[in-house]
Amino acid sequence: MSIHDKIGKNITYLRKGKGFTQEGFALECGISSSYLRLIEHGKANPTINELMRITDMLDVGMEALLADPAAV
Question: Whole-structure pTM over 0.85, yes or no?
Answer without folding.
Answer: yes
